[in-house]
Request: fold
Amino acid sequence: MMMLTKKMIEIRGLLQTVGQSESLTLPSIVVIGSQSSGKSSVLEAIVGHEFLPKGSNMVTRRPIELTLINTPDAHAEYGEFPALGLGKITDFSQVQRTLTDLNLAVPARDCVTDDPIQLRIYSPNVPDLSLIDLPGYIQVTGRDQPVELKEKISELCEKYIKPPNVILAISAADVDLANSTALRASRKVDPRGERTIGVITKMDLVDPERGASLLSDKKYALRLGYVGVVCRVPSTTSTPKLFNRGSGNITNAIAKNENAYFSSHAEFSPDSHLSVGTKNLRKKLMHVLEQTMAASLKTTSEAIQRELAEATYEYKVQYNERPLSAESYLAESLDAFKHAFRSFSEQFGRQQVRELLKHELDQQVMNLLAQRYWNRPFDDLSVPLPESDPLSGLMKADPEGENQIWQIKLDSSSAALTKLGVGRLATSVVANALQAHIDRLISNSRFSAHPFARQAITEASTSILRDLSYDISDELEICIKPYKYRIEVEDNEWAKGRENVTNVLKEELKVCESAVKKLEEHVGGRKKVRDVTAFIDRVRSGQVVLEGDGIGGAGGFSAALLKKGREAVFLRDRVEVLKMRLLAVKSKQCANKKNKYHCPEVFLDAVADKLTTTADLFLDAELLSKFYYIFPRELDARLGRSLSQNEVERFAREDPKIRRHLDVVRRKDLLEHVLKEMESLRQLEAREKRYGARK
Ligand code: GDP
Reply:
């Protein structure tokens, strides 16, 4: 018979994890009683340990679903909170503290909640039982307790004492049974006393005669009867209270005390047929629970079948019977991501790196040209045009390079380019591009719906790129070192540079022209721009002398308009320069590398090209290949092996769609499992019946 209860309690536990529906459970014993009736003492006497929250103002605010599991071959006794994952707790004062914390976590304004705390206790000394401890009924609300507390506790208890649960109604012997809140509540839902066990505590506080009469109460006759107990642990000097109630098992101490009391009074002799003592109470509870559970097996199993049919239907219709587990989901997502990454890596190679770098260096060349050749001061209205316009000078420079200034200018410009920090610049341009591609791959992958995975992948790539870049930029700088001293440009390189820079200049020209258009639109028309630029030109050429600094506006133009005007002048000059330089680059003179001092654009482009070639080769080998090798492995490490079952589960459930799918699969699997267990229970029951019949 023992096996049956164990199995049923196991099934009850499984059903708890399925959750939801009220019909989807097996009955339990619900313990009710008013405060101080001795309810906790009874439960602790059954368990053999003090583990329930105490304290004058301590009201149990949540039901405790207490599952006792008899472990005949084990020595250790321990508690477990399955929902908290705290592991085995062998120190029962720790169980008590945890229960206290869980109760206190319920906000005072909620008074009580019906969200149960699940606690399992494993011990060779406990019977297999399933009990639900409810908040004790209170007679009067305390000063610091909400007024509706009393009402709320009653409601909560009412919910639990519904059939088919067994009611364990606790009343103290020293209180008139007619006033017992527990019995009154039970009578409401079980008027014929068919599923209520009465427990009379504190039998030692009334005289034995009266005690005996309570146990044979006829006013509220209970089919399952009354049991009288003395659950207070005696505190004698030889067995200090602290030791008894704190760490050791109290079962024996209580039994000894009860025996001493009941056997010393003839009223409770075996002839009286009264049921007394915690030991008898335990036996009764086991017997009644088993009977009750067995009686509801059929209805419960029907309920499970109904739920299973629903879950199966949903699985079929919504998910096309596609199997799914958190692990398989993660593995598939990871594979898909790595696949996408592989295709990306096949498309992003040396050529792409080269384009990126060349574009970056083109911009650097344009900046250098502007700084060293094209710009003239434009930010100060009072500065007149330079006497010798560098550009007109450049145009007129004599082919033999007589004018040393152009030689120095070009040498220093090319040195500025090679000493720019190309190692760091090129490495970071490519690393940033890789990171941007990874971000794009994430956004286009399943991981986009998973903040946790997004972060893990981003961290993986940034940390790899950071580590690689550190050494690579230094090494690359060393590779380009020779160019810092001497640069030879071949004819074909010159021709290529000329062609490329023509395009770059054209592109730049387009950018400037469109900026001019934008500015005109912004200011409110071409004419307005012409007026203000004409004024600025007059100031610059000294035809107009400004009074003051012109900051607050001048010549009838506002300061803001003057600012725009200066921009317009700058852009106009830039357009002019670009057009002129385009002509120069295309001219015969620039076709020959001998004239490099006249054609700094072409020469600098050729230098940039050389730098690019060195950098792309190096970065392809050092950054790309290494990244392409390490990154997928790092992904495996961060999202594969190192994740715990819980983390994998949390990951998959981040996506609401996947969460629903997983829930259906899980529910279906669990229900199928429970049904199988029910079937084996049925067989066990049949076997026990046959065995019983043979005996
Ligand atoms: P609860 O509020 O219903 O959980 O009641 P407790 O179990 O905390 O008991 C209330 C008080 O009654 C405590 O001081 C217990 O020591 C005491 N008590 C419990 N059972 C007995 C008993 O059988 N005999 C005596 N004399 N006192 C008891």
